[in-house]
Design the sequence.
């Protein structure tokens, strides 16, 4: 394995960590948001938005390095674990783009039940974490599904 391929693997792993790790910070933030006073709500929501943005941008690095690894690595594009990873990645990208932003936009709408919005936000975080764990499993295990 040459130096450049190793550097790409390293960047890919670091971006995977940054894509998943901060999501676990959402869980206590949502819990604190449930009992937060009005003046603190916007601070918690801003932190949540920063976490989502960080996860999104590290996901971009993850995709680019993943493409480079496929181009320069030993696995062809039609390998089952690669196809499944791409499918889950597209699903999680759509979910990240639509799931969190729609929930966060509804937070301050007077017609919405605050507790229901927070429950949806927590459920969205867990679903996204689950999708990322499936992708992580596929990339680490590299199962031959077909």
Sequence:
């Amino acid at each position: 394995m040459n130096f450049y391929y190793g550097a790409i693997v390293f960047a890919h792993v670091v971006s995977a960590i940054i894509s998943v790790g901060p999501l676990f910070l959402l869980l206590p933030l949502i819990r604190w948001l449930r009992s937060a006073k009005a003046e603190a709500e916007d601070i918690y929501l801003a932190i949540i938005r920063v976490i989502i943005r960080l996860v999104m941008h590290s996901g971009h690095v993850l995709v680019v390095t993943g493409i480079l690894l496929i181009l320069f690595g030993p696995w062809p594009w039609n390998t089952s674990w690669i196809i499944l990873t791409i499918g889950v990645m597209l699903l999680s990208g759509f979910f990240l783009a639509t799931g969190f932003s729609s929930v966060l936009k509804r937070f301050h709408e007077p017609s919405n039940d605050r507790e229901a919005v927070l429950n949806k936000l927590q459920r969205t975080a867990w679903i996204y974490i689950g999708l990322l764990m499936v992708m992580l499993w596929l990339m680490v295990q590299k199962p031959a599904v077909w």
The chain has a mean pLDDT of 89. The first helix runs from residue 3 to 20. The CA atoms of residues 34 and 57 lie 27 Å apart. The chain is about 80% helix and 0% strand.
